[in-house]
Design a protein that fits this description.
Radius of gyration: 28 Å
Strand content: 15-25%
Helix content: 25-40%
Oligomer: single chain
Largest sheet: 9 strands, mixed
Bound molecules: adenosine-5'-diphosphate, magnesium ion
Distance between the termini: 84 Å
Length: about 600
């Protein structure tokens, strides 16, 4: 056996195996190059979802003859002028995309840096002579027969529809990060999307772009997020809990404006929303994290979609607190899509959901089913102390939730606002109010602990023990006090008083699992909140209880002043609002 250096085309094909999973990944790399080249307009044209042809045309800086020739060489890049892998300012830096794509396809690049156009043609990575051509300033790259040189990869490609969808997913993320660039995508001559360039304040133009991508309903249903700590800035938009989806696929993360996919961040978002949304639903959100280059490593994975934070605990807590503050500030706001949905049910007109993707409508329908799920079992104990701090009652329609006009079916409060009517689910609303009160009480007085008379020994694997040990302090702050017993077991001495009757062994196992999965303790706080929720539910005004005008109005006033009161503990809305203009529409007056 003789050790030898591999020929460069083979090396490029091996790299292609990492960088290029499918046509969408080639499109992404090429579009990133166009963005890096300063383009303000990027046109993507596909044939058969990119399997036949990918053509990208940009109006960026372009390349001259020499640059064009060297651009397709391995590790050739213009983006690390100082050999500095810390201050990475471009989307690209590895110098791998062009040679990798070229090595497995038939490619040509036409480029003009202002001094005239040249075309370079390659087949399976072999260059043919460079020749003069015609093109305005910018670059056009055509990739034909992707993966013809690696037939195994070719076999794994999916239907045209699926491949187009993958491209849309990846390019949407880039388009969100660069709202000032116009993007368009066509497949087999058909327009898939065309996002106009937006100008002005970055946060505003991001929102505009996000609404182009996700649909206009977003505009009324997101809360702006902004927070800063130690030079780390979190900005973006978090969806109201009532605008939820069945997957986490509508969560977009950017680090220094680079779209990333990150399990840690998904877990963080889950934690931030955990007490306003049931665990199988997912919020919509776009978060832009800006931080000093030294604080993050983007050179973790060939596709550059993963990053590593130096201080991930700080980032996690900053994101959680900024989202929670945003949601709490939103107070009683519930998503407008709720009343839109209500309206579409009232009317005989066909349902219409704004937004490009037809699946948005399906998701809303699915969400509605969730609301219609039966409420948890309700018992008869209406707790009087929950009503002692009620503000003075006023019959004034200028309040956001208006003045109560009556109660229907002993379950719904109907109120009149300045320009519409509001229907409140009295049980859901009151449950939320009680729960928020209990949470505040818990935060104020801390978590009371209960010392176990007989300490509980729980056997666990050594990796679980290590993880628990690393969080010993935090857990103690939550009221869970334990010691390790060798590397096989823990002894639990104290538990939070509020859950003193729970299965301690189960709880600690769940916590260890959470730590493994999310690096985050969800179970304990969840357990506490679950108890709080259950107690809140039982202490609430049940559906079916008759309320007088005064009681109804005080409930409305309390909702207005309580954070998160727009949805119940299960993410269902506590009220819906119908505007007069909508009602007029129903009656055909407009
Ligand atoms: P990287 O993006 O990591 O530098 P690539 O292989 O993707 O590596 O590209 C190699 C080089 O080719 C880039 O550094 C850039 O100088 C040049 N280049 C690629 N695409 C374009 C483009 N659309 N416009 C101008 N220059 C480009
Ligand atoms: Mg690149």
């Amino acid at each position: 056996m003789r050790i030898r250096y591999l020929p460069s085309i083979l090396i490029n094909r091996i790299a292609a195996g990492e960088v290029l999973e499918r046509p969408a990944s080639a499109v992404k790399e090429l579009v990133e190059n166009s963005i890096d080249a300063g383009a303000t307009k990027i046109m993507i044209e596909l044939e058969e979802g990119g399997k036949n042809l990918i053509r990208i045309t940009d109006n960026g800086s372009g390349m001259n003859k020499e640059e064009l020739e060297i651009a397709v060489e391995r590790h050739a890049t213009s983006k690390l002028p100082e050999d500095d892998l810390v201050h990475i300012t471009h989307l690209g830096f590895r110098g791998e995309a062009l040679p990798s794509i070229a090595s497995v396809s038939r490619m040509n690049i036409t480029s003009n840096d202002g001094s005239g156009a040249w075309i370079l043609t390659l087949e399976g990575g072999e260059k043919s002579a460079i020749a003069p051509s015609a093109l305005n300033k910018g670059t056009r790259i055509e990739v034909r027969d992707l993966f013809f040189a690696t037939p195994t990869r070719l076999k794994f490609l999916k239907s045209v529809r699926t491949e187009v969808d993958r491209t849309v997913e990846l390019i949407d993320r880039l388009a969100m990060a660069y709202p000032n660039i116009a993007f368009s995508l066509k497949n087999d001559g058909k327009d898939i999307f065309s996002y106009a360039a937006t100008a002005g304040d970055l946060l505003d133009s991001r929102l505009k772009r996000i609404s182009e991508i996700l649909g206009k309903e977003i505009l009324d249903n997101v809360i702006p997020i902004k927070a800063e700590r130690n030079g780390v800035i979190i900005e973006g938009y978090a969806g109201l809990p009532t605008l939820n989806r069945g997957t986490s696929g509508f969560q977009y993360f950017f680090v220094n404006n680079r779209p990333i996919r990150d399990k840690l961040l998904l877990g963080v978002v889950k934690a931030a929303y955990q007490d306003v949304m049931s665990h199988d639903r997912h919020p919509i959100l776009a978060l832009f994290i800006t931080l000093p280059f030294e604080e993050v490593d983007v050179n973790v994975h060939p596709t550059k979609a993963e990053v590593r934070f130096r201080d991930s605990a700080m980032i996690r807590s900053l994101i959680i607190s900024s989202i929670r503050h945003g949601l709490a500030d939103a107070g009683h706001r519930a998503s407008s899509s709720v009343s839109e949905f209500a309206l579409s049910n009232f009317s005989s007109a066909p349902r219409y959901y704004p937004g490009r993707s037809s699946s948005a409508g399906a998701n809303l329908a699915e969400k509605n089913l969730l609301w219609q799920a039966p409420l948890p079992e309700i018992r008869e104990s209406f707790s009087p102390e929950a009503r002692t701090e009620i503000p003075p009652v006023q019959d004034d329609i200028s309040y956001p939730l208006g003045a109560a006009r009556g109660q229907l079916h002993e379950t719904y409060i109907v109120s009149q606002t300045k320009d519409g009517i509001v229907i409140v689910d009295q049980h859901a609303a009151h449950e939320r109010l009680v729960y928020e009160k209990m949470k505040i009480a818990m935060e104020k007085d801390g978590v009371k602990t209960q010392v176990l008379l007989i300490p509980e020994v729980v056997e666990l694997g050594s990796s679980s023990i290590n993880r628990l040990e690393s969080k010993q302090k935090e857990l103690a702050a939550f009221g869970l006090v334990f010691e390790t017993l060798g590397d096989k077991a823990v002894v639990i001495r104290e538990v939070p008083a509020i859950i003193k009757d729970c299965d301690v062994k189960k709880l600690i196992e769940n916590i260890a699992d959470d730590l493994e999965e999310h690096g985050e303790i969800l179970s304990l706080s969840k357990a506490i909140e679950h108890i709080a929720e259950t107690m809140a539910c039982h202490g609430s005004i049940r559906a079916g209880r008759r309320l007088n005008r005064e009681e109804m109005n005080s409930l409305l006033r309390e909702m207005e002043s309580t954070p998160n009161s727009g949805q119940c503990n299960h993410g269902r809305p506590t009220y819906i609002e119908l505007k007069l203009s909508d009602i007029e529409k129903l009656f055909g007056r407009k």
